[in-house]
């Protein structure tokens, strides 16, 4: 910034300079420049430490959300009494737990996965074509991979390797321990996949993933293309042969998925409501024959309140299902927790649309929540299942 200071004639000619006024004016100019520079830096937020847009006004800071008071009113229990730690109580409702905003500055945060060996969370920022890394020991945020092929869902296998669903790559990949990338699946019946969205790894090493068409619908989250698959399916990759097998073909838009802790159930979201008002917005549950790689006995586990949808799922050790909610009523934005029987236990309210979530922390009791432009976290009295 450049500027010129002008003074009255009495100061420029014959009367001498008034140094006090000059210094005062220069100080004011410098302060103005610093203010403008600070405001500009805050609006840019290169790694998302300030000022991302949310439904809150003014923009939210990092740390506990404004107005947080123990117990945090954003943790809503559906059961009585409201503060309960029994088997029917909402396991995220406790007196000294509050929702925190730990990172921000993303365009669409998705697919979180926790790596216990490094105590960090990896998650996708799909439109920015990158995978981010949040280190929970010191709160450091960094770029793990860019470009990421517009990565979406991520998980971890039993050998500690990253499994990633890629929109623009139209494939599922594995990042080896030496950093190289192996293609796990990119075709079925000789035709390209649509845009793999989310994945989970079973105890036998098999990889199960969903393949909706969101990543080829435009150029914002991938590369626009016509689907080559007749349907939007769920697939299983054999851990020994690498063969890809279709296990479900009757979804409108299959999305997030996860196993129950004993791997006898598989939960899968259908977000078909995004394609039309008469399509489903619910979670289905299947019986799993892990040895045969088959699913059976499909039924609706839980309906979402339209126009909201859910597309991210995780189970805790007690078999409760935690799911993301967003896109519809802002009052529903956040996380829902269900018993294994489909009974709604409680909600975690987040001031942004929530896409996905995962358990992390050394005790697996910290729930990380991808909320649009930000990463949130809350400690729970539940522990995430050992399965990713």
TrEMBL record:
Domain SMP-30/Gluconolactonase/LRE-like region: 108-370
Coiled coil segments of this chain: none
Swiss-Prot/TrEMBL keywords: Hydrolase
InterPro entries hit by this protein: 6-blade_b-propeller_TolB-like, SGL, SMP-30, SMP-30/CGR1_Lactonase, TAT_signal
Top-level EC class as recorded in UniProt: hydrolase
PROSITE patterns per the UniProt record, alphabetical: TAT
Region Disordered, annotated ranges: 47-69
A single MF term (Gene Ontology): gluconolactonase activity
Pfam families reported for this sequence: SGL
Enzyme Commission number: 3.1.1.17
Full protein name: Gluconolactonase
Organism listed in the record: Bradyrhizobium algeriense
């Amino acid at each position: 910034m450049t500027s010129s200071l002008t003074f009255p004639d009495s100061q420029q000619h014959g009367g001498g300079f008034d140094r006090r006024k000059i210094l005062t004016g220069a100080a004011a100019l410098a302060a103005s420049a610093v203010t403008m520079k600070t405001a500009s830096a805050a609006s840019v937020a290169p790694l998302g430490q300030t000022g991302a847009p949310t439904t809150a006004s003014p923009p939210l800071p990092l740390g506990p959300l404004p107005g947080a008071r123990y117990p945090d009113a954003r943790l809503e229990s559906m059961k009585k009494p409201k503060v309960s730690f029994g088997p029917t109580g909402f396991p995220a409702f406790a007196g000294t737990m509050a929702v925190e905003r730990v990172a921000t500055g993303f365009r669409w945060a998705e697919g979180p996965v926790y790596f216990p060996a490094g105590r960090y969370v990896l998650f996708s920022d799909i439109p920015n074509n990158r995978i981010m890394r949040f280190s929970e020991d010191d709160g450091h945020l960094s770029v793990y991979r860019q470009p990421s092929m517009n990565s979406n869902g991520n998980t971890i296998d039993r050998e500690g390797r990253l499994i990633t669903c890629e929109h623009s790559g139209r494939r599922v990949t594995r990042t080896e321990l030496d950093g190289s990338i192996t293609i796990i699946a990119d075709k079925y019946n000789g035709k390209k996949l649509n845009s793999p969205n989310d994945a989970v790894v079973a105890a036998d090493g098999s990889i199960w993933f969903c393949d909706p068409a969101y990543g080829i619908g435009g150029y914002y989250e991938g590369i626009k293309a016509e689907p080559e698959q007749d349907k939007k399916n769920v697939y299983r990759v054999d851990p020994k042969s690498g063969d890809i097998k279709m296990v479900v073909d009757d979804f409108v838009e299959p999305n997030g998925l996860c196993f129950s802790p004993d791997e006898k159930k598989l939960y899968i979201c259908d977000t078909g409501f995004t394609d039309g008002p008469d399509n489903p917005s619910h979670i289905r549950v299947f019986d799993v024959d892990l040895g045969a790689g088959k699913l059976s006995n499909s039924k609706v586990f839980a309906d979402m309140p339209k126009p909201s949808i859910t597309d991210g799922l995780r189970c805790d050790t007690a078999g409760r299902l935690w799911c993301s909610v967003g896109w519809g009523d802002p009052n529903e934005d956040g996380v829902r927790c269900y018993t294994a029987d489909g009974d709604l236990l409680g909600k975690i309210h987040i001031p942004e649309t929530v896409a996905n979530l995962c358990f992390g922390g050394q005790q697996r009791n910290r729930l990380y929540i991808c909320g649009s432009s930000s990463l949130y976290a809350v400690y729970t009295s539940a522990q995430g299942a050992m399965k990713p």
